[in-house]
Design a protein that fits this description.
Blueprint: H1 2-28, H2 37-56, H3 66-90
Helix pairs in contact: 1-2, 1-3, 2-3
Length: 95
């Protein structure tokens, strides 16, 4: 159980770092992000999570904001897994 939790947490960390990196490259490319191969690679790697978030979010959320929503959902999922990992490794003692 703990090893599966650690693997899931690591995957969420990777996705989060890719989304942050994609944003940084977007900002640093000054509007030419679609020609940047690093940006396209990061977009390719994050596209499954962004598509999943697009599927579960209401249509009121515009497509431009879906990667930001993806980042926040990834962050909160990571925080929850970190809490559960802490509880599993500490034995659940409430003191």
């Amino acid at each position: 159980m703990l090893s599966m939790l650690i693997v899931l947490k690591g995957m969420l960390e990777f996705i989060g770092y890719m989304l942050i990196g994609q944003f940084v490259v977007y900002v640093m490319s000054f509007g030419r992000h679609e020609q940047n191969p690093i940006y396209r690679a990061m977009r390719f790697l994050t596209s499954p999570i962004v598509r999943l978030v697009r599927f579960i979010t209401p249509k009121a959320v515009i497509d431009k904001h879906v990667p930001v929503v993806s980042f926040f959902l990834t962050f909160w999922a990571w925080a929850i897994l970190t809490y559960f990992k802490h509880e599993l490794t500490q034995g659940g003692s409430g003191a």
